[in-house]
Amino acid sequence: MENKNLKPKANGAALLPFITFVLVYLLTGLILNNMGIEMAFYQVAAPVCILPAIILAFIMFDGSMDDKFNDFVRGCGDENIIIMCLIYILAGAFATVSKASGGVDSVVNFALSLIPVQYITAGIFLIGCFISISTGTSVGTISAVGPIAVGVATKGNLPLTLVIGSLVGGAMFGDNLSVISDTTIAATRTQNVDMKDKFRANIKIALPAAIITFIILLIVGKPEGEVALDDLYYNFVLIIPYLFVLITALIGMNVFLVLTSGIVLSGIIGIITGGLTMMTFAQNIFEGFSGMFEIFLLSLLTGGLSYMVSSNGGIAWLVQKISGFAKDVKSAEISIALLTLLTDAATANNTVAIIIGGPVAKEISNDFNVDPRRSASFLDTFSCVMQGIIPYGAKILIAAGLTKELGTQAISPIEIIPFLWYQGFLFLFAILSIFIRFADPKGKWNFELDIPQEEVNQNLK
After folding, report:
1. Using CA atoms, how far apart are residues 433 and 256, in angstroms rounded to an integer?
2. Euclidean distance between CA atoms 178 and 181, whole angstroms
3. Which residues in 159-256 belong to E strands, given as ranges?
């Protein structure tokens, strides 16, 4: 976090704790992967990997132990960090309650029932988009739709890599845009922008990429044989909570009210339809809280470490070096893109990449007048691009693992990469938006007050 009271002297050595965290995270995954352990990069939780970095920060930075501990706690308690953590646990509770009530199955079957069988590959992509934007989880989308995608590919004599690639692409579409995705929450909070504003900036990049991908899949993804889907039972009432959360968030309702209302609505509908009882409703709320514990804890620890690094000049040094390349808005946006891509490749986790890169992106935004709605969009977009193509990331590992678990032709993560067309188009349109300003947010940003100028004008009336 940025130290508001001091302007520390730039100090590149202060970044060593962050570098240590990335190296520990990366090397642990590589070593475990070489040992043949599945999901190697996810065997040691990120909060554990950051502990050596925090210890190093306490050892190397000047000051008494009490002063350093106070700085660390001040960073953990930063307003944006606490808000982000509270949103995480509410989003987790909503997702868990909605799934337990049967909402995910209804969403999948409802989407499948609307898609003609001859367009099933494009349909899998579309379903991935719909479910991930509704549920806020790309991993959950791949896990829910993956078995269906594998079965459809087998029955329709379709290339399994093409179908799985289309599913991963659809899952990344929603991960990038969903108002309850942890990446969206992290991107908006670190840049101090509203979710609806980030969505509006982001959709101008993501939608063209999705449309082109969908059209290509319509052409090349037709099955060679007959595809018979099983009875697709769904209850539209169970889909209502997802629609409610999506719509109310986009119209600008307070995110805490949106998620709390969504949890209550999902619980009431689940109890009425028989999917939940009062007891299981309460249990699933806590299960959702617990499921977000890792990212909750990581956000707190990263907030504390970030404040210590910033107070000792690390962020100032990084911004200073980037400023040597960045001369204007365009080059500053390229800097944010490169920072996000590299951090995500190193950590294999898009949320971690955003939490680490967010404070730096905010500094760049302020220094070069990059609209923070754009910087939030770039953090989310480029982290999803990289996370959606690296063969050691959770998304592709799970997708490839499903083909092995289901007893069909097993494919490796590397084999899926050539069919990740959406991620390629998303990268292309994001880069184009830097040079052809088709995705700029409407209205100017007031950098002095760090709010949209439109809000300033309304307050003056």
Report:
1. 32
2. 5
3. none
